[in-house]
């Protein structure tokens, strides 16, 4: 892309943005709060609006798209004693990436982390015999300090290696020669990068509110689930765990959980659905899917256009800063094209509120309000998409 | 014909505008709690070379914020907004070129995507010419997913595999998929960002011991990046897949298409004075 092309595109974007402040009209003021204001992500109390033109030729997806994740990896916990004896793992593709990470545990009432096991302390046994991971010419390996230096804050303590291609795939045994304590804990990650077997998790929506039912579908590519080795868990950002019901079908597995628990979380943090499964050929997979689970802190109870204004009635359950996004499309012959995205945000106490937002584009009779969204900026939740 | 005339008028207006604009450049670092990004993150050689492209050399800002936090956090986007807003208003900047690296692109995109979050955001958005995003982690990185797999918080132990910063958690691919679909703009199917977001994509890592190019940005860092490429696609810079780097906004260029000697830019090199990157950025001002 040349500078001139960047400049050309810039010209079409200039002079399309405007912002101003508008006050919302409060109908009620019941100020019951479930969360102290100082814990909110956004405490801004000034009304703000902003308008952005949309490119008519750039398709915009309306509604909420689901989330999905695909995994060719799994992880398994082992004790120091097990690692000294040797632990088994199985791959379905060559050149799998193996990582061993020490875990925390409690000993005599104190929290401690197991010592790092470096590639030099590991013996890998495969179809072709025993190999010291560091000395065998294993194509790529990295000590914990090398990984940590490369990505500070990401790979502390962990050591990794790639199984040499000549060792192929299948059953392996990994053993340490380091004299670790029997009750030390380690997590073995196996990334079966070149395998065709992947586990997929998907939701139809990206976010769920308290009281709704979380539905997740799971399937395997190039394999079938072994029915008696499935564990599905929903994990809250604060570590709380909830078992999910799983139902095996011809196409995969359906996971479900009614969201009756306390769903309060730090603003913006996501929950995760974790599924551990095994194929009918003995290959393990773990997939983790992030979803937003939030409290329904406000709702749009009514909205209508009148006299050049968009009037919206909000029912607010918890005080906070809320944003309304209105998506305008323009009819061009038989085609409905994106036209503008209008934003309005303000602080609202609990109760019912009527908000009137002037719609500057309304002089064009061909405009349609295609989508209206309500977002909780204080807790980071998309509450409604109408 | 009408379109051509309109375009000509617009281009003339833009040329006049740029010629009379007060141009500034802001350098926005990636993940980390920066206190001296000039020396630690970018290095002086890179910054001073980029500065040469400015008509007024004092109109350059090197941002220092805590990007270990979530992008929306006051210490991240709030801090960035404060520094950009003060820069714009104190120096009367009306033509701001923002250069981001890695996760800095996400924090910048947060500001551009959520104009009513903060009173300062509209002023910032309206005064940006465009953002040049060097290796932005727009769709996250499989490395963040890898280190978070199995790493859960337990009340008695804390994080089982050790604490990972909010920024690392945020840059998991499935987390970024949620934020991109709900809170951020610029990805496919979402509204475009209000101003251009132009990606420079690092496509590979070279760490051959005999190749002097492998030493730009630090030889051992590049060796490590080549190792972590094993978690990534064949097109990656050692930290991010190319699909993530070009996941929001528009492609400006893939490294080898513009760099000296057609060299790839590893994730460490895309913020350093390597293979003429600094000159390309300077000439874009």
Task: Calculate the terminal CA-CA distance of chain A, rounded to whole Å.
Answer: 38 Å
Using the coordinates shown, work out and report the CATH topology of the largest domain in chain A.
Immunoglobulin-like
Q: What is the residue-mean pLDDT of chain A, rounded to a whole number?
A: 85
Question: Any idea what the CATH superfamily of the largest domain in chain A is called?
Answer: Uncharacterised protein PF16024, DUF4785
Give the percentage of residues in beta strands of chain B.
5-15%
Lay out the secondary structure.
The complex is a heterodimer of chains A (386) and B (285).
Chain A: H1 3-13, E1 17-20, E2 25-26, E3 48-53, E4 68-71, E5 73-79, H2 80-85, E6 87-91, E7 97-102, E8 104-107, E9 110-113, E10 122-126, E11 129-132, E12 140-142, H3 144-150, E13 159-162, E14 170-176, E15 185-191, E16 198-202, E17 207-209, E18 213-221, E19 225-235, E20 241-243, E21 245-248, E22 253-258, E23 271-279, E24 284-294, E25 298-306, E26 309-316, E27 320-332, E28 335-348, E29 351-358, E30 367-376, E31 381-385
Parallel strand pairs in A: 17-24
Antiparallel strand pairs in A: 1-3, 2-29, 3-28, 4-16, 5-15, 6-14, 7-13, 7-15, 8-9, 10-11, 10-14, 12-13, 16-18, 18-22, 19-20, 19-23, 21-22, 23-24, 25-26, 26-29, 27-28, 27-30, 30-31
Chain B: H1 2-19, E1 23-28, H2 37-42, H3 44-51, E2 60-62, H4 74-90, E3 95-101, H5 104-113, H6 121-127, E4 128-134, H7 142-148, E5 153-154, E6 158-159, H8 166-170, H9 173-182, E7 196-201, H10 219-228, H11 242-245, E8 250-254, H12 255-258, H13 277-284
Parallel strand pairs in B: 1-2, 1-3, 3-4, 4-7, 7-8
Antiparallel strand pairs in B: 5-6
Helix pairs in contact in B: 3-13, 4-5, 4-6
């Amino acid at each position: 892309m040349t500078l001139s092309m960047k400049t050309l595109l810039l010209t079409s974007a200039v002079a399309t943005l405007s912002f101003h402040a508008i006050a919302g009209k409060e109908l009620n003021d019941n100020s019951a709060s479930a969360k102290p204001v100082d814990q909110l992500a956004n405490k801004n109390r000034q009304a703000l609006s902003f308008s952005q033109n949309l490119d008519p030729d750039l398709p915009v997806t309306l509604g909420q798209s689901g989330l999905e994740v695909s995994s060719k990896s799994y992880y398994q916990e082992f004790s120091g004693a097990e690692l000294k004896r040797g632990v088994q793992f199985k791959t379905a593709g060559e050149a799998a990436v193996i990582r061993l990470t020490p875990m925390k545990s409690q000993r005599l009432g104190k929290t401690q982390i197991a010592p790092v096991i470096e590639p030099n302390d590991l013996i890998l046994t495969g179809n072709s015999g025993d190999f010291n991971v560091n000395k065998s010419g294993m194509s790529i390996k990295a000590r914990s300090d090398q990984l940590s230096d490369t990505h500070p804050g990401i790979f502390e303590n962990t050591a990794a290696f790639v199984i040499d291609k000549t060792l192929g795939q299948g059953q392996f045994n990994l053993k340490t020669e380091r004299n670790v304590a029997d009750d030390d804990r380690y997590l073995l990650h196996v990334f079966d990068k070149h395998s065709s077997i992947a586990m997929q998790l998907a939701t139809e929506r990206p976010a769920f509110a308290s009281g709704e039912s979380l539905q997740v579908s799971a399937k395997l590519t190039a394999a079938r689930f072994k029915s008696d080795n499935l564990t599905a868990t929903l994990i809250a950002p604060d570590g709380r765990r909830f078992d999910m019901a799983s139902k095996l079908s011809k196409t995969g597995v359906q996971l479900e959980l009614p969201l009756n628990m306390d769903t309060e979380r730090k603003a913006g943090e996501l929950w995760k659905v974790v599924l551990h499964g095994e194929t009918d050929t003995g290959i393990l997979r773990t997939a983790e899917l992030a979803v937003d689970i939030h409290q329904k802190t406000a709702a749009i109870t009514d909205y209508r256009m009148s006299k050049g204004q968009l009037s919206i009635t909000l029912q607010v359950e918890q005080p906070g800063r809320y944003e309304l996004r209105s998506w305008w499309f323009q009819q061009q012959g038989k085609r409905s094209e994106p036209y503008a995205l209008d934003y309005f945000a303000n602080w609202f106490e609990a109760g019912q509120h009527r908000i009137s937002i002037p719609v500057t584009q309304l002089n064009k009779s061909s405009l349609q309000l295609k989508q209206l969204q309500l977002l909780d900026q204080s807790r980071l939740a998309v509450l409604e998409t109408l | 014909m009408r379109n051509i005339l309109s375009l000509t008028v617009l281009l003339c207006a833009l040329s006049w505008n740029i010629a009379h604009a007060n141009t500034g450049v802001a350098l926005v670092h990636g993940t980390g709690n920066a206190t001296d990004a000039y020396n630690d993150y970018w290095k002086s050689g890179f910054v001073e070379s980029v500065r040469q492209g400015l008509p007024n050399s004092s109109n350059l800002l090197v941002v220092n914020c805590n990007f270990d936090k979530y992008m929306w956090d006051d210490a991240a986007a709030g801090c960035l907004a404060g520094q950009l807003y003060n820069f714009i208003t104190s120096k009367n900047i009306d033509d701001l070129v923002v250069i981001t690296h890695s996760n800095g692109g996400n924090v910048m995109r947060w500001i551009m995507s959520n104009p009513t979050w903060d009173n300062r955001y509209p002023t910032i958005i309206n005064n940006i010419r465009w953002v040049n995003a060097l290796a932005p982690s727009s769709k996250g990185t499989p490395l963040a997913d890898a280190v978070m797999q199995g790493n859960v918080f337990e009340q008695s132990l804390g994080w089982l595999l050790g604490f990972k910063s909010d920024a690392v958690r945020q840059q998991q691919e499935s987390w970024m998929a949620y934020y991109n679909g709900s809170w951020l703009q610029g990805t496919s199917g979402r509204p475009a960002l209000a101003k251009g977001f132009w990606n420079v994509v690092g496509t590979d890592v070279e760490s051959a011991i005999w190749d002097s190019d492998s030493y730009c940005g630090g030889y051992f860092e590049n060796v490590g990046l080549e190792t972590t490429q094993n978690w990534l696609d064949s097109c990656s810079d050692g930290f991010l897949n190319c699909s993530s780097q070009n996941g929001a906004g528009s492609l400006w260029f893939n490294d080898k298409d513009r760099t000296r000697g057609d060299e790839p830019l590893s994730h460490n090199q895309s913020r350093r004075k390597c293979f003429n990157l600094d000159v390309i950025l300077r000439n874009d001002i």
